[in-house]
Write a structure and sequence with these properties.
The protein has helices at 25-35, 52-59, 72-84, 100-109, 130-142; strands spanning 42-46, 64-69, 93-97, 115-120, 146-157, 168-176, 179-186. By secondary structure, the protein is of the alpha/beta class. The protein has a single domain, classed as Rossmann fold (3-Layer(aba) Sandwich), CATH 3.40.50.
Amino acid sequence: MRIISGTLRGRDLGAVPRGVRPTSERVRESLFSVLGSIEGMRVLDLFAGTGALGLEAYSRGASRVVFVERSKPVVRALHRRVALLEIDADPRIEVLEGAALRALHRLSEADTAGFDLAFLDPPYEAGRNESARETAIEGLFEAGLLAPGATVVVEGPKRHPVPPLPGIRVVDERCYGETRLTWLRAVVTNVE
Protein backbone atom coordinates (compact mmCIF):
# COMPACT_ATOMS: atom_id res chain seq x y z
CA MET A 1 0.00 0.00 0.00
CA ARG A 2 1.55 3.28 -1.15
CA ILE A 3 0.80 7.00 -1.38
CA ILE A 4 -0.29 7.66 -4.97
CA SER A 5 0.56 11.32 -5.51
CA GLY A 6 1.89 14.52 -3.97
CA THR A 7 4.86 15.21 -1.71
CA LEU A 8 4.85 11.67 -0.28
CA ARG A 9 4.25 9.96 -3.63
CA GLY A 10 5.44 6.37 -3.70
CA ARG A 11 6.03 6.14 0.06
CA ASP A 12 5.05 2.81 1.57
CA LEU A 13 2.28 2.94 4.18
CA GLY A 14 3.45 -0.25 5.87
CA ALA A 15 1.51 -3.29 6.97
CA VAL A 16 -2.26 -3.20 7.33
CA PRO A 17 -3.42 -3.85 10.92
CA ARG A 18 -5.40 -7.02 11.46
CA GLY A 19 -9.12 -6.55 10.91
CA VAL A 20 -8.73 -3.35 8.87
CA ARG A 21 -10.00 -3.12 5.30
CA PRO A 22 -7.92 -0.45 3.55
CA THR A 23 -9.18 1.56 0.59
CA SER A 24 -7.50 0.07 -2.47
CA GLU A 25 -5.05 2.16 -4.50
CA ARG A 26 -7.38 1.98 -7.51
CA VAL A 27 -10.32 3.37 -5.51
CA ARG A 28 -8.14 6.08 -3.89
CA GLU A 29 -6.77 7.11 -7.29
CA SER A 30 -10.29 7.38 -8.74
CA LEU A 31 -11.59 9.22 -5.66
CA PHE A 32 -8.87 11.86 -5.73
CA SER A 33 -9.20 12.22 -9.50
CA VAL A 34 -12.88 13.11 -9.03
CA LEU A 35 -12.09 15.46 -6.12
CA GLY A 36 -9.44 17.38 -8.07
CA SER A 37 -7.18 19.76 -6.18
CA ILE A 38 -7.47 19.64 -2.42
CA GLU A 39 -4.63 22.08 -1.82
CA GLY A 40 -5.28 24.02 1.40
CA MET A 41 -8.36 22.00 2.41
CA ARG A 42 -9.05 20.93 6.00
CA VAL A 43 -9.76 17.20 5.99
CA LEU A 44 -11.44 14.85 8.47
CA ASP A 45 -10.74 11.11 8.11
CA LEU A 46 -13.46 9.50 10.25
CA PHE A 47 -13.08 5.72 10.80
CA ALA A 48 -9.48 6.27 9.66
CA GLY A 49 -8.22 2.69 9.82
CA THR A 50 -4.88 2.72 7.98
CA GLY A 51 -5.23 6.48 7.45
CA ALA A 52 -4.64 5.99 3.71
CA LEU A 53 -7.29 8.54 2.67
CA GLY A 54 -6.13 11.24 5.08
CA LEU A 55 -2.46 10.60 4.32
CA GLU A 56 -3.17 10.85 0.60
CA ALA A 57 -4.94 14.16 1.25
CA TYR A 58 -1.97 15.39 3.31
CA SER A 59 0.43 14.40 0.53
CA ARG A 60 -1.70 16.34 -1.96
CA GLY A 61 -1.54 19.58 0.04
CA ALA A 62 -4.32 19.51 2.63
CA SER A 63 -3.69 22.22 5.22
CA ARG A 64 -4.92 20.03 8.09
CA VAL A 65 -5.85 16.38 8.51
CA VAL A 66 -7.62 14.97 11.56
CA PHE A 67 -7.81 11.17 11.84
CA VAL A 68 -10.43 9.54 14.07
CA GLU A 69 -10.22 5.85 14.92
CA ARG A 70 -11.73 3.90 17.83
CA SER A 71 -9.45 0.84 17.93
CA LYS A 72 -6.40 1.27 20.20
CA PRO A 73 -4.20 -1.13 18.19
CA VAL A 74 -5.18 0.56 14.92
CA VAL A 75 -4.46 4.01 16.43
CA ARG A 76 -1.02 2.77 17.53
CA ALA A 77 -0.39 1.48 14.00
CA LEU A 78 -1.51 4.83 12.57
CA HIS A 79 0.91 6.69 14.87
CA ARG A 80 3.71 4.36 13.67
CA ARG A 81 2.72 4.98 10.05
CA VAL A 82 2.81 8.77 10.54
CA ALA A 83 6.22 8.46 12.24
CA LEU A 84 7.50 6.23 9.41
CA LEU A 85 6.52 8.97 6.95
CA GLU A 86 8.41 11.46 9.17
CA ILE A 87 5.40 13.77 9.52
CA ASP A 88 4.58 13.01 13.17
CA ALA A 89 5.88 16.42 14.32
CA ASP A 90 3.77 18.31 11.77
CA PRO A 91 1.03 20.29 13.57
CA ARG A 92 -1.22 19.83 10.52
CA ILE A 93 -1.67 16.15 11.52
CA GLU A 94 -3.85 15.10 14.46
CA VAL A 95 -4.83 11.56 15.47
CA LEU A 96 -7.79 11.15 17.82
CA GLU A 97 -8.70 7.87 19.49
CA GLY A 98 -12.37 7.26 20.14
CA ALA A 99 -15.76 6.39 18.72
CA ALA A 100 -16.89 8.55 15.82
CA LEU A 101 -19.77 10.36 17.51
CA ARG A 102 -17.77 11.07 20.67
CA ALA A 103 -14.88 12.40 18.59
CA LEU A 104 -17.26 14.63 16.62
CA HIS A 105 -18.60 15.98 19.91
CA ARG A 106 -15.07 16.65 21.22
CA LEU A 107 -14.09 18.38 17.97
CA SER A 108 -17.20 20.57 18.04
CA GLU A 109 -16.55 21.50 21.69
CA ALA A 110 -12.98 22.45 20.73
CA ASP A 111 -14.48 24.75 18.09
CA THR A 112 -12.78 22.82 15.32
CA ALA A 113 -15.16 24.01 12.63
CA GLY A 114 -14.47 24.32 8.99
CA PHE A 115 -13.62 20.92 7.50
CA ASP A 116 -13.82 21.25 3.72
CA LEU A 117 -13.68 17.52 3.08
CA ALA A 118 -14.55 14.50 5.20
CA PHE A 119 -14.05 10.80 4.51
CA LEU A 120 -16.27 8.22 6.20
CA ASP A 121 -15.22 4.62 5.72
CA PRO A 122 -16.90 2.70 8.55
CA PRO A 123 -16.40 -1.06 8.95
CA TYR A 124 -18.62 -3.04 6.60
CA GLU A 125 -19.33 -5.77 9.18
CA ALA A 126 -21.10 -7.98 6.66
CA GLY A 127 -23.87 -5.47 5.99
CA ARG A 128 -24.93 -5.09 9.63
CA ASN A 129 -23.53 -1.62 10.11
CA GLU A 130 -25.75 0.51 7.86
CA SER A 131 -27.66 2.19 10.72
CA ALA A 132 -24.36 3.05 12.47
CA ARG A 133 -23.10 4.46 9.15
CA GLU A 134 -26.19 6.65 8.74
CA THR A 135 -25.97 7.80 12.38
CA ALA A 136 -22.33 8.82 11.80
CA ILE A 137 -23.24 10.68 8.59
CA GLU A 138 -26.07 12.57 10.31
CA GLY A 139 -23.86 13.23 13.35
CA LEU A 140 -21.17 14.75 11.14
CA PHE A 141 -23.60 17.04 9.34
CA GLU A 142 -25.24 18.09 12.63
CA ALA A 143 -21.98 18.70 14.55
CA GLY A 144 -21.29 22.08 12.94
CA LEU A 145 -17.84 20.92 11.85
CA LEU A 146 -18.29 21.31 8.10
CA ALA A 147 -17.45 24.47 6.18
CA PRO A 148 -20.14 25.80 3.81
CA GLY A 149 -20.12 23.69 0.64
CA ALA A 150 -18.05 20.93 2.28
CA THR A 151 -17.96 17.52 0.63
CA VAL A 152 -18.37 14.25 2.53
CA VAL A 153 -17.30 11.06 0.79
CA VAL A 154 -18.70 7.80 2.16
CA GLU A 155 -17.12 4.48 1.26
CA GLY A 156 -19.15 1.33 1.63
CA PRO A 157 -20.16 -1.91 -0.01
CA LYS A 158 -21.71 -1.62 -3.47
CA ARG A 159 -24.78 -3.56 -2.32
CA HIS A 160 -25.64 -1.02 0.41
CA PRO A 161 -26.14 2.49 -1.00
CA VAL A 162 -26.53 5.44 1.36
CA PRO A 163 -30.30 5.96 1.79
CA PRO A 164 -31.93 9.39 1.55
CA LEU A 165 -31.15 11.37 4.72
CA PRO A 166 -32.86 14.60 5.80
CA GLY A 167 -30.92 17.74 4.91
CA ILE A 168 -28.29 15.81 2.96
CA ARG A 169 -28.10 15.32 -0.78
CA VAL A 170 -26.13 12.86 -2.90
CA VAL A 171 -24.07 14.79 -5.46
CA ASP A 172 -22.25 11.83 -7.02
CA GLU A 173 -22.02 8.09 -6.66
CA ARG A 174 -19.59 5.66 -8.27
CA CYS A 175 -18.86 1.97 -7.95
CA TYR A 176 -15.46 0.32 -8.26
CA GLY A 177 -15.77 -3.45 -8.10
CA GLU A 178 -17.61 -4.16 -4.84
CA THR A 179 -16.93 -0.67 -3.41
CA ARG A 180 -19.38 2.24 -3.62
CA LEU A 181 -18.27 5.85 -3.12
CA THR A 182 -20.98 8.39 -2.39
CA TRP A 183 -20.35 12.16 -2.39
CA LEU A 184 -22.65 14.08 -0.05
CA ARG A 185 -23.33 17.76 0.68
CA ALA A 186 -25.71 19.59 2.96
CA VAL A 187 -28.92 20.76 1.34
CA VAL A 188 -28.74 24.52 1.02
CA THR A 189 -32.00 26.28 1.75
CA ASN A 190 -32.54 29.77 0.42
CA VAL A 191 -33.74 32.12 3.12
CA GLU A 192 -35.18 35.35 1.77
